[in-house]
Amino acid sequence: MHSLKKRIKTGELTIGSWITIGHSAIVEIMANAGFDWLVLDMEHSAITLDQAQQLIQVIELCGISPLVRVGENNPNIIKRVMDAGAHGVVVPMVNSKDDAERAVHAVKYPPRGTRGVGLARAQGYGLEFNRYKKWVNEESIVIVQIEHIKATANLDEIFSVPDIDGFIVGPYDLSASIGRPGEFSHPEVEKALAKVLKFSKKNNVTSGFHVIPPEANKVHEAIKKGYRFVGFSLDTLFLGIKCREQVHNIKEMKL
């Protein structure tokens, strides 16, 4: 089987999900559900770097790819999650070519990037640096988030940056930047989403979208639109919605 990076770069459909609960059991359950990748969310959760490393280990042991959505486009944060063993990063609020270049440079070692060299888990705790140096150039993944209306004015420049493997739309933040948070069917939001898809096809960049509701039909809709890197809901919604649904059904039963 091809690596996740090659699958993304060639436009093969991959489906993953988001982890916001920093517990190994949650991650193990999700990793064995059939996803191609899981993103540990360190932007909108209480997951710490120490927890992230442990969760990365669990995801790898389950045979899929661990990615980390970092809290900001910060080279020190990106360096540390990569050193912890992340296969790649999802970088929020990439609104310009400079933002995209900074994300790539934080992942790659010189001369392709500016990442500092350390000997942590990713490098076999100092015993496998040469192997990792080759791997990080060939297999590390950089996904940029298009989640602000400002980014839609710079799509050609963002997508032209070498070593960007794809992008994922953050629908809530994108709609919020237009002043329509969560109103995905509003004409202005639909127009912005259509523009992103148009430019991704023009630049031959793998397009991604995070489908928030845990509903398979909405994933199918995203795939039909052309999205190939699809995030399917998140751990809390899978748990919370199923619990509420079944408790409601129990209470509605006539005994």
CA-CA gap between termini: 52 Å
Give me the count of strands. Answer: 8
Which overall shape is indicated by the principal axes computed on the Cα atoms?
globular
In oligomeric terms, what are we looking at? Answer: single chain
Radius of gyration: 18 Å
Strand line-up across the major sheet: 6-5-4-3-2-1-8-7
Quick one: CATH superfamily?
A: Phosphoenolpyruvate-binding domains
Give the helix/strand class.
alpha/beta
* Highest CATH level, the class: Alpha Beta
Instruction: Work out the helicity level.
Output: 40-55%
Low-pLDDT parts are none
CATH fold node name: TIM Barrel
Number of helices: 11
Q: What can you tell me about this protein's structure?
A:
The chain has helices spanning 4-9, 24-31, 49-61, 75-83, 97-107, 129-138, 155-159, 171-177, 187-202, 216-225, 235-252; strands at 14-19, 37-41, 65-69, 88-91, 141-146, 166-169, 208-211, 229-234. With 255 residues, the chain is of the alpha/beta class.
